[in-house]
Amino acid sequence: MAEKLTGQVGAGHGLPSAEKGGLLATKMARRDFGKLLGAHTVVLSTLSLAACGGGGDDTPKVYPAATPIADATAQPATIGSYQRKNGYFTWSVTASGVDRGIEVYIPKGARQREYWISITLPEDVQSNQFLGDAGWFDIADESLACLLIMKPGSTGKWGDVKTEQAYVTAAMATLVSSGTHYSAMTYHYVVGYGAGAAPLQLYAASNPLSMISQVYLEANVDDAYTALLSAAGNTQVGATVQPNHMDFTGYTDINGNPVTDKRTFAAQFYRDVPIPTWFVGTTSPSLLSYWSGVNDSDVVPVTDANFGQIFWQNKTTSNALATAGSEVKAQVASNPNRTRLNNPAVTRNIYSFLTQYSGYDNNTVYGHFITRRLDYKQAIAAKSMVYKDHMWSGSTTQQTYIVYVPDSVKKNYSLTKPAPVVFATHGAGQTAFVFMEATDIKEVADKHGFIAVTYDTTTTPYLTDLVGLVKQDCQSLGYAADVSRLYVYGHSAGGGATTGFARDDTLIGTFAAFGITSGTFPAATATSSKKLLPFYAIYGEYDYWPMKFGPLVAGDFRGSQNGQYALSANCQDYWLKRLLNKTLADEVAAPTYTLKDGISASLVPLNTPISLILKPTATANRYKIRTWDRNGVPLFVWGQCYGRGHNLITGDINKIWEEWFSKWQKGSEADTLLYWKDGVGTGQSTVLKQV
What percentage of the chain's residues is helix, strand, coil (to nearest 5)? Predict the structure, then answer.
């Protein structure tokens, strides 16, 4: 029987739209679809999963056994963004008072703080033999993906699902950025085999903000399990009707009194967070019903050669915030044909399904989103990307940077027609890969036509060096970087670094405009530049630091870190003084800004449930934007994103490009900038003298 393989391992798949029509001629409530799908076997295809394939040689292969990870020698910190331990290891976690074994596979060359694949093994298998025969070691070595392996207990059988869910929870908790032995981004791909699918699936349903995509093979459950899954989905995200996990109990205002100044949005539930899902083999109809509801799936499937029948998310009727900011679609795919669980062809399809997607923000439901994942090997081969380590002269560690040239740049720019470049500075605990991938700046770059650069080091000497390297790299890809249209953006700690760049004359002479999201604010020094420059800032309503314009007063929420309330006010005061010769006190007393209020003509009353962003057809509805100008030229923007926590959303980057970077260009004369109201090259520009 022939096996149908996907393309290159790590492929980032485009997500086609499902054909409209048939049952979609009439609207159907998302939960009603789950009832219809209960009879899914009627419409599922008979595509083969190659039950006989995957080997050719019946001689059993011998694979290395796992060794204790505590015994492994860590590489020195100078290794930079790479995992410091490589190999196949055993470890243990404690769940329900019992020590249970886990295994990890960390291929050489794997990087820190990237996505892992977490696997629950089938019953009665030897883990190394199963993983090897299934091709997981090969895929990990090829893609540099790390594996977390969860196993049945000493009997070789999975036990009670609640007990096993505690074990899965403890195992998954080792995947943190500052782990004891390894480092991971806390967004997960998960794969569950047979009886091991049940506890992993329940974990995913109970932790949807940490999930990217999932695959389950031979997943069969009873009514009791279905009730547990339903209960998980009906759990409200957060202890209060706030848009995240934040419980305001114990939070105080600047006077030490309980926070009263807060906005409440209509609650979201775990079932409201889409997780793209693929079922392989026999599957309980209740599982298909549940996940189709979660993913707002169409009732008319699309046939796919690799995945069987795909029920794509219906973006027209979906309320899912995680996919609202882009064209990306969630899905539920199902192929009922049975196969060997260790079939390597199927494993490659599993990997391909999972890696269609990336994810970002695992703590705020109104900030969480899923995106398309790039195929980095393919991008490099197509001369769309440079992915390098750089040991610059001021560092003893390897630093990674990525240059991405999207299709829109390839179409519109060349060596003789230079393209704009955005240097994006990641937050603490992230990497160049995470910031390129998860934040979706790659999609924004393609949408708007600029080259995107992400990088690991945030010092002026490094960034100065990097600009020169990126110019060369763009040339090697067949494109020129427009030195008059270089921009720097930063998030969180990267936002703090960007405010530092904006005080350095060297970098002010390099970049045309600056922008941050949720950035910290390092104090200015005596040597800080006083030149004029365009600066755009966006903060979230439930950010670490308050997004409020003006100083905090009694009753105000002072930020989710509960103690750093002055940083945003300090940021406002600094830029008003430097760019406009005003103080924050002046602006509070007699405002001179222009206000663009996407929320309403006036603020929605505090402490009032609203449904504004439950149907997020217009991302602009989440923003209030204050703009200050000097002689008719805007210089400072303070943006507020409602319902968002500390992490950015794709709308933030879009706004910074559309409303800021796209309008600024360095002038041909020293210390001059050009402001183009309708975008660079359109209409008439205004000259801004920086000194």
Answer: 30, 25, 50
